[in-house]
Amino acid sequence: MTSATATLAPPLSPPSSDSDSDSSSHRHHHSDLSSTIFKSYLELSGDHHNQKHDLIKIQAFLTSSRSGALSCLICLERIRPSDPTWSCSTRCFAVFHLHCIQSWAVQSSNLAAARAATRAATPNDSSLLWHCPKCRIEYSKLQIPKTYFCFCGKLPDPPHDPWVLPHSCGEICGRPLKYNCGHHCLLLCHPGPCPSCPKLVKSKCFCGAVEDVKRCGFKNFSCNGVCKNLLDCNTHRCNEICHEGDCPPCKAKGMFKCQCGKVEMKRECFDRFFRCENPCEKLLGCGRHKCEKGCHEGDCGDCPLQGKRTCPCGKRVYEGIACDVAVPVCGATCGKMLSCGFHRCPERCHRGPCIETCRVVVTKSCRCGSFKKQVPCYQDMTCERKCQKMRDCGRHACKRRCCDGDCPPCSEMCDRKLRCRNHKCPAPCHRGSCAPCPVMVTISCLCGETHFEELSTHTSLYHPSKS
Predict the structure, then answer these.
(1) Overall average pLDDT of the 172-185 stretch
(2) What digits encode the pLDDT tens for the residues 398-426?
(3) What is the pLDDT of residues 180-215, one digit of tens each?
């Protein structure tokens, strides 16, 4: 088996210069061993599309880095081997100049802060987001890169070495592999995602019936047999082919009763627990009152009128009164909170709901704040003063009585003459220029031979048809 630890081969002769010149005479050609490096990985991936896509992505990054063909998507300039870089390590793994991504992130974060300020919000650095220019994955302001690291993130400011892949530390990557399998990447420090784990492990199929030795990155497999796992109903078993994830709901049909037992009907097994539309009406423990709940399972519970009981206002407690005997009122002031939320019921202890309208006299200000008056609490207070503030059109005053400052949109028609000089604007009154005339008219050329329909706005060069 081909070793999983690999790097690019060194040049055949030492370079004559460390220059980053684009001249072909100073360019060093390395032997391309990428096909050999990834041959066994690609064979292991088989039909796993996502894993094979990641491998192809790694190979493309390695080829581009080796040939110096990487370009920054922000400034569109070539990334030289000695340029400090940053790569998106979350999704796309694209490589950018460090100073380009820093400028991009700072501008995006400042724009997010300005937008938050318009909403009177006070965001912190962790809530100000910027996005990768390629895949648009979100990063917080705290994640703006400040230091140039190698691809695997172990070595800051990796030195440029013509014998090592640019922007790489040349050591084993060592990053944790996908799905937290417990193993680490065995390739040398590289751009792009890490390949699937090649370790050999014992693994069971999805349904657990077959155990086999598999590569760790491809340990999830189907035995292609019938699943036969017990379904949620704990009665029937799954008839699907060995599959990933939870088994589907049980579709077996049967006759099932509702939770109160009054209605029986044919339903699918996974939907066997249901409620009918009938009230429960079972006798409670007292033997005198019926359950007032809807269809339900389990016991109905004790009678709520047994044991300690209180008068309607709750201020006096009575013991030993039978559940079918009405509790007498206590004669004290009710004191329950009224619907206004400010005052309490002034009536004597009484049965039934309290008065709906609070009639306590209070001093209220009108909506615009220019007038005060003593009125009952439930009554709204307005005055006759008309608002003189200009509406959003900038042409008409509000004129609404007792306006609280939030003036409604202008209800007048614009009625200004349009550019066609034949019609008036039919839109509500607005700021700025009017829209083009929407009226279609029949127009003709100067000689009258050609007729066609056109917007009234464009008829200035023609004569309207007289027919």
Answers:
(1) 82
(2) 888 888 778 888 878 888 888 887 888 88
(3) 778 888 888 888 788 778 888 888 899 888 888 888
- Contact between 276 and 295 under an 8 Å Cβ cutoff? The reply is yes
Looking at this protein, which amino acid is placed at residue 272? Answer: R
Q: How far are the Cα atoms of 70, 98, 154, 208, 379 from residue 166, in angstroms, in the given order?
A: 11, 14, 15, 46, 78
Amino acid at 420: C
Does residue 277 contact residue 296 with C-beta atoms inside 8 Å?
no
* All residues at 6 or more sequence positions from 324 whose CB lies less than 8 Å from its CB, including other chains: 288, 289, 305
Tens-place pLDDT, residues 310-328: 888 888 888 877 777 788 8
In degrees and rounded to multiples of 5, residue 141 shows phi and psi of: -60, -30
Tell me the C-alpha distance between 433 and 431, whole Å. Answer: 7
Give the Cα separation of 187 and 174 in Å (integer).
8
Q: What is the DSSP string of 109-154?
A: HHHHHHHHHHTT----TTT-EEE-TTT--EEEGGG---S-B-TTSS
- Its sign, for the CA torsion 19, 24, 26, 29, is positive
The continuous run of DSSP H or E covering 103 comes out as helix 98-118
> From CA 186, how far away is CA 117, in angstroms rounded?
48
Beta strands in 307-429 (DSSP E): 309-310, 317-318, 361-365, 372-376
Distance from the Cα of residue 424 to its chain's centroid = 46
What does residue 28 show for φ and ψ, rounded to 5 degrees? -100, 130
3-state secondary structure of 93: coil
Q: The tokens 């009234």 sit on which residue?
A: 456
Q: How far is CA 247 from CA 121, 318, 337, in A?
A: 46, 56, 53
- Distance of CA 68 to CAs 88, 162, 443, Å? 19, 12, 64
